[in-house]
Amino acid sequence: MHTIIEKKQLSEQVYMMRITAPLIAEARSPGQFIILQVDTDYGERIPLTISGADAEEGWIRIIFQTVGKTTIKLAELKEGEEVAAVLGPLGQPTHVENFGHAVCVGGGIGVAPMYPIAKALKEAGNKLTVIIGARSKDLVILEDDMRAIADELIIVTDDGSYGRKALVTEPLKELCESDDKPDIAVAIGPPIMMKFAAETTRPYGVRTVVSLNTIMVDGTGMCGGCRVTVGGETRFVCVDGPEFDGHEVDFDNMMRRLQSYKPQEDKARHLCKLDVEADRLADESSEKEQA
Predict the structure, then answer these.
(1) Which residue has the higher pLDDT, 220 or 33?
(2) What does pTM read for this prediction?
(3) Which of 53, 68, 205, 242 is the most buried (most CB within 10 A)?
(4) 154 shares a domain with 216
(5) 69 and 44 in contact (C-beta within 8 Å)?
(6) In which region does residue 144 sit, left (phi positive, over 0), alpha (psi from -120 to 50) or beta (all else)?
(7) Are residues 154 and 34 in the same domain?
(8) Cα separation of 210 and 197, whole Å?
(9) Among 247, 265, 258, 245, CA closest to 213
(10) Whose CA is closest to 132, among 105, 172, 159?
């Protein structure tokens, strides 16, 4: 079992947790992920990227958004409670070297898995520009963490409530057209954001890496649930990725596949909310009886 030693709500639907996992903390590298299971009773297994770790203290950090039944159940856990199963580290680590000028583009919750990659790129000697994109100011995460490592931090919001009113592709294009054109771009976020980030860099010949977080079940390449098309070939995100050449990924196919189980996910989330309400009413009834 893995104990939650810290829990913090970063925004309305985004949570940060530090969980004890000493072996994973010691072995992990930037870009890798875990498969997490909240309970052992036929619980769903979900992939979450490791957004930080401390090998000496034996914990890993995860940041997640409550978008489905399992993430909602995970968010309900409290400090001191335990997560049933955490498997990892999984996936191929990010290839890090001194490329020159590295631009890291994080959209929404994608800023979380971007942080350890950006930190490693900076430590390798790169000039580091970080672009953070969010729908509004309330949804901007890890600003202080990124500001501490970036040579330049650019924040954009869809509604203009913080930073520039723009999509992440706008400053990314400006950088590509500047005298200090990036030598590499890394983009993590919603598939549509990564698609257009890759299309933005394509005309300028800027190598672009994207991290894909598709449907995963076992995380070891056995089920094929996370297959994507890259360069016309079928690849498995869990073992071949999660990072791929953004100019080679068939994002349209990937986005269609991500909708495959949406009816089941919507149903599960609805039932989960009913479970929460039932538990709340049961607690109230118990309190009244004790009174």
Answers:
(1) 33
(2) 0.86
(3) 242
(4) yes
(5) yes
(6) alpha
(7) no
(8) 9
(9) 258
(10) 105
